[in-house]
From TrEMBL:
The chain crosses the membrane at residues 363-390, 402-421, 441-468, 480-501, 507-524, 555-576, 583-611. PANTHER family: V-TYPE PROTON ATPASE SUBUNIT A (PTHR11629:SF63), VACUOLAR PROTON ATPASES (PTHR11629). This is Uncharacterized protein. GO terms for molecular function: ATPase binding; proton-transporting ATPase activity, rotational mechanism. It comes from Fusobacterium animalis 4_8.
Amino acid sequence: MAIVKMKKFKLFALEKDRKPLLKELQKFDYVHFIKTSNEKDEDLKEIQIPENINLLKEKSQKVKWMIKYLSKLFPKEAKEEISNSSTENLLFVQVEQQAGKYDFNKDYETLDRISKEIEVNKEEFLNLEIRKKEIDNWRNIKEPIENLKAFKTAKIFLGTVPKKSFETLKDNLRNFDKVYIEEISQDSTMVNLMVLGSKLEEKELKNQLKTHSFTELNFDFKGTFEEEFEKIKLREEEIKKADNKLKSTAERLLKVIPKLEVQDNYLDNLLLRENIVSNFKKTDTVDIIEGYIPADMEYEFQKLITRISNRNSYLEISDVDKDNPEVPILLKNSGLTGLFASITQMYALPRYNEIDPTPILSIFYWVFFGMMVADFAYGLILCLVSGIALMVGKFNETTRKFLKFFFALSFSTMIWGLLYGSAFGDLIKLPTQVLDSSKDFMSILILSVIFGAVHLVIGLAIKAYILIKNGHFMDAIYDVFLWYLTLASLIMLILAGRFGFSEFTKNILLICALVGMLGIVAFGARDAETIVGRIGGGIYSLYGITSYIGDFVSYLRLMALGLAGGFIAVAINIIVKMLVSGGILGIILGVVVFAFGQSFNIFLSFLSAYVHTSRLMYVEFFSKFYEGGGKAFKKFRI
């Protein structure tokens, strides 16, 4: 991948050509608009967003709602329709043509009516459920409700009382001459009661019931509670049938989802086209438009402007200032390295005067990820799962890239698994073993540190390249070469005894280290205004040598994670071997433990490798040269 070279343009076009011009530019796609700058002597006016924008927004919202609602009613079927109706491969002209052939309003009215009826039915059904539960508590009363209200001299109370008050209420009601109390049903907190009393004592009876927190219930139906319960059940069945009928009607609209997807894309682009004019400025008759285009599309862009405006326009195209942070960033994808672009972009896009680190990052990421998992069987599983998903599944471009990313990483995992001789830990001993994770700790540790050293050296080399490319040769000497001199000399001094260096060689290395450190102190804060500030800043820069120690230690995770995953796999295998020796039940349990344990370890190993490899890139590698913070190139099509 590389940063696409940009050109800045300023276009003066007739106002009457605005609509056809924007339409053609949207087909062209690779245009990044910016706010038109106001020249000192120019009396320019803002261009107002068209009044029809609200109507377009309303249409867009309706289409999005239809897709969302159908997806809610029929998740599986709608997902399948959406995956089959990708607009990514359609030309903009095709989107416009297909959108113009389909009027969604009639289908919207149908779906809107269905949704409202389903919502009304849902609310009624919920109320019926509450009502049914309430009636269910009184089904032990077999007498029609109207008969209970027909007594001339007696009064019946139906209601609830807290469980804790029930016994006290019964005791107190014995003081009345003519009172009958019956428990109909109860739950964990309340008792449902029927209380029968004389109308002569109605007032006193009410007061007594009220004292014990009695809540009277009034039922407004005729017939028995059982009959009312059955009526509710019948009505619920009617609602279910009505809902099924409504959903059946809605299901027929699933076939229009591809058309809705096209309509949605068309309206989104139309809204983008209408909204973009707020960036432009104008005189009475001329629009002034500014933006960026890829440098290799300059000729094509000029031809388009000439064709649309009939030569009634003026176009200025100029080179961009490489140090301008406003220049948009467009990365050019190519081959396998493009799969790792998301790792760079998660951190930040590069600035225009930097380089895209993805090609170099992709190599180290691929190697480090595999080393952190280092199991042939795990890599093979990742390869098969991601490979089959790519062959069989219908995914959008983003998901496909993500699957390809892990498909590529599976090969690194398998290679390191072969080197470690590991497949499900020690379950299968591979003849390709070069490093034994149970014995060769020091070899793996040294290998991890070497990888780290190479990674850091390349990071500093990239920094030097960027500085030299931008014309700062001496900065490359001060900020990179002096560190190379210092670190290399100190490392060689530490290893002098192991390699048998002579005293003369040691002295040379010591002098080189001192020269490097003095250089860092002298030039580490060369922009400071005072000599004290310069020396103080230089000493602080030299203190940064401690961060390199931390960096080298960080690379030990290459060893640690690989060994940890391997030891967990071995531990699972030991447990399984113990279980399978216990007969049929032990074998079954062993298979379950193996499947669950290894699956969990696979997930944990891949997750840890993804996170920690990304950390090595972001914290150790990028900190040496990469600022980031570039603004993404916004293409003129969604």
